[in-house]
Design brief:
The complex is a heterodimer of chains A (92) and B (381). The N and C termini of chain A lie far apart (44 Å). Chain A is mainly α and 92 residues long. Helix content of chain A is 51%, strand content 0%. The radius of gyration of chain A is 22 Å and the shape is flat. Chain A contains two helices and no strands. Helix content of chain B is 7%, strand content 63%. Chain B has a 16-stranded antiparallel barrel. A two-stranded antiparallel ribbon of chain B has the order 10-11. Chain B is globular, with a radius of gyration of 23 Å. Chain B starts with 10 loop residues before the first helix and ends with a strand. Classes of the chains: A mainly alpha (92), B mainly beta (381). Chains A and B meet through helix 1 and helix 2 of A and strand 1, strand 2, strand 3, strand 4 and strand 5 of B.
C-alpha cells in the first residue's frame, strides 16, 4: 500500500470514527431529552390557552403543508422525522 | 441507450388536465358540504429553474361521528408535472408530462386519554403504484401536559417502466415513529421524535443511466453506459427536536432540528426557524426559514471511471444521493371568516416559498431555484 493510499485510508477511518461518535452523541442527547422531559413540568389546564393557539402546534395544516413537504422529500436524500406525506414516486 | 418515455405528451395537454381537475374539484366543493362537517380544497403550484412544473390540486372532507369522538377523513390529490429536468435531458428524452393520483382515507377515535388512528393511501401513476397504511396511538400523559405518539407505517410499491410492460419491481417499506411532546410551562412546548424507515426492493430509477469513463454522462464521452444500480435495502434513522415558544400574547418563535443518517452513508442536518404572528382568533402570519445540508452516499461518485475486473457494486446518477444543501424561505397567511350566525366558518390560506438547491458534485447541475404557491379554503360547518 503506498504512503498516499495509507494516509487516505487513515483519514477515512478517522472520519468514520468521528461520524459514529457524532451520531452516538446525538442519540444520547435525544434520549436525555426524553428522560428529563418526562413529567418535568405541570401546567394547569386553565394556563394552557397560549399552548392551544394554532401557531404553537407542531403539525401544520395538511392543505398547506402536503404539497411542499412532498416536493421537498423527493428532492433530498433524507426522509422522516417530521411526519410523512403519502406515497408515489413524484420523482420528476 | 436511455429508455424512451413513450408516454410523453405535450405540455399544453398536461396543463389542460390540471385545469380540468381543478375546475371539477371547485365544482364538487359546495356539493360535499351536504354530507361532511369539514371540507377543504386547494392547489399547490411549483416551478423551478430545472424546467419542472408541478400543479397539485387537492380536495378533502371530514365527518365527525359519536359526539365528535370519531373523525373520518378522505382526501384526493393529483400531482400533475411537466418536466425537462437534467435527468430527462441527460437521457435525451423530450419533455414529459405525467399525472399521479392519490386517495387517502383516515379514521381516528378519541378515548379518555388516548387517540387511536388508522390511515390508508393509494397512489397511482402510469409507471408507479404505491399502497400504504399506518396505525397510530397517541397517549396523553402527566395530566395532559405530555403526549406520547407511536406510529407504524407499511408501504407496498410497484415500480414500472413506461413503454416496457415486462419491467416490474417491488419495493416494501416498514417504518415506525415515536414522538414525545411536553409542555415546559404555559408558553413553551417541546417535542422529540425518532423515526425509523426500512425499505427493501428496487430503489433505483429505471430511467437513469450512468456513464462510466469520460465525463460521466451517457451521450458524452463515457466509454460505457449502464443502468443505475442501488442497494436493495436501506435503513434510515431520523431524530427531531422541535420547540415552540410564545414570545408575546400574539406571536411565537419555533425552532426545529433534524439529524438524519442511513446505511447508504447519507448524513444530513435540517434546521428550521419560524416566527408567527396571530391577529385575534381570526388570522395568522408565519415566516419560515429552512436550511438543509447532506453528504453524499458512500457509493455515489460524480464521475465513475472505467471499471476494473471487479467492476462496481452500485452506480448512481441520482442527485438526491450527491452532496447538496438548500435554503428555503416561506411566508404563509391564513384568515377565518364567520358565515352568518350558524357557526359556519371559512378559512382561507395562502403560502409562498422560494428554495435554492446547491449541488456540490453533480455533473451538469450546480443550482436549482424554485418557487411555490399554495392556496387553500376550508369550510367548517
Amino acid at each position: 500500500m503506498s504512503r498516499l493510499t495509507t494516509k487516505a485510508y487513515r483519514a477515512s477511518e478517522v472520519l468514520g470514527v468521528f461520524r459514529a461518535a457524532h451520531s452516538q452523541a446525538l442519540v444520547y442527547l435525544f434520549l436525555t431529552f426524553l428522560l428529563t422531559a418526562l413529567g418535568c413540568a405541570t401546567v394547569a389546564p386553565y394556563e394552557r390557552e397560549t399552548l392551544a393557539r394554532s401557531d404553537m402546534q407542531f403539525e401544520g395544516a395538511p392543505e398547506i403543508a402536503e404539497g411542499e413537504t412532498h416536493a421537498t422529500e423527493v428532492r433530498e436524500g433524507s426522509a422522516g422525522g417530521f411526519g410523512g406525506t403519502g406515497g408515489g414516486c413524484g420523482c420528476n | 441507450m436511455a429508455s424512451p418515455r413513450s408516454f410523453a405528451i405535450s405540455n399544453s395537454r398536461g396543463s389542460w388536465h390540471a385545469i380540468a381537475i381543478g375546475a371539477l374539484l371547485w365544482l364538487a366543493f359546495p356539493a360535499t358540504n351536504a354530507v361532511a362537517d369539514e371540507v377543504s380544497t386547494g392547489v399547490f403550484y411549483r416551478q423551478d429553474s430545472d424546467t419542472t412544473l408541478v400543479v397539485s390540486p387537492r380536495v378533502a372532507a371530514a365527518k365527525y361521528l359519536q359526539d365528535k369522538m370519531t373523525r373520518v377523513d378522505v382526501a384526493y390529490t393529483a400531482d400533475i408535472w411537466t418536466s425537462a429536468s437534467i435527468d430527462i435531458r441527460t437521457a435525451a428524452t423530450a419533455a414529459v408530462t405525467e399525472q399521479r393520483n392519490q386517495v387517502t382515507g383516515a379514521v381516528s377515535h378519541e378515548f379518555a386519554r388516548t387517540t387511536v388512528a388508522a390511515n390508508y393511501y393509494f397512489s397511482n401513476e402510469n409507471d408507479y403504484v404505491a399502497n400504504g397504511a399506518g396505525l397510530s396511538l397517541v397517549q396523553r400523559l402527566a395530566g395532559g401536559n405530555a403526549t406520547l405518539e407511536e406510529r407504524l407505517n407499511f408501504g407496498f410499491d410497484r415500480v414500472g417502466r413506461s413503454g416496457d410492460p415486462t419491467f416490474s419491481r417491488d419495493l416494501r417499506t416498514l417504518g415506525g415513529r415515536l414522538a414525545y411532546t411536553q409542555n415546559i410551562n404555559s408558553t413553551t412546548v417541546l417535542q422529540g421524535a425518532y423515526e425509523l424507515i426500512y425499505r427493501e426492493g428496487y430503489q433505483a430509477s429505471p430511467y437513469r443511466f450512468v456513464g462510466l469513463g469520460g465525463d460521466g454522462l451517457c451521450g458524452g464521452s463515457a466509454v460505457l453506459c449502464v443502468p443505475e444500480v442501488h442497494p436493495d435495502t436501506r435503513m434510515r434513522h431520523a431524530m427531531v427536536l422541535d420547540g415552540r415558544h410564545s414570545v408575546s400574547e400574539d406571536s411565537s418563535l419555533g425552532v426545529g432540528y433534524r439529524f438524519y443518517i442511513d446505511d447508504w452513508g447519507v448524513l444530513s442536518h435540517t434546521g428550521i426557524v419560524q416566527f408567527a404572528v396571530v391577529f385575534g382568533e381570526e388570522s395568522s402570519f408565519t415566516f419560515r426559514y429552512r436550511f438543509y445540508t447532506q453528504g453524499q452516499a458512500s457509493f455515489y461518485q460524480p464521475v465513475y471511471g472505467v471499471p476494473g475486473p471487479t467492476g462496481f457494486d452500485f452506480v448512481s446518477r441520482d442527485r438526491e444521493l450527491s452532496s447538496l444543501f438548500s435554503n428555503r424561505g416561506a411566508l404563509a397567511y391564513d384568515t377565518l371568516f364567520e358565515l352568518g350566525e350558524s357557526g359556519t366558518t371559512l378559512r382561507a390560506a395562502i403560502a409562498a416559498g422560494l428554495t435554492v438547491f446547491t449541488y456540490n458534485n453533480f455533473v451538469g447541475l450546480d443550482n436549482v431555484y424554485s418557487g411555490d404557491l399554495t392556496f387553500a379554503l376550508t369550510l367548517e360547518l
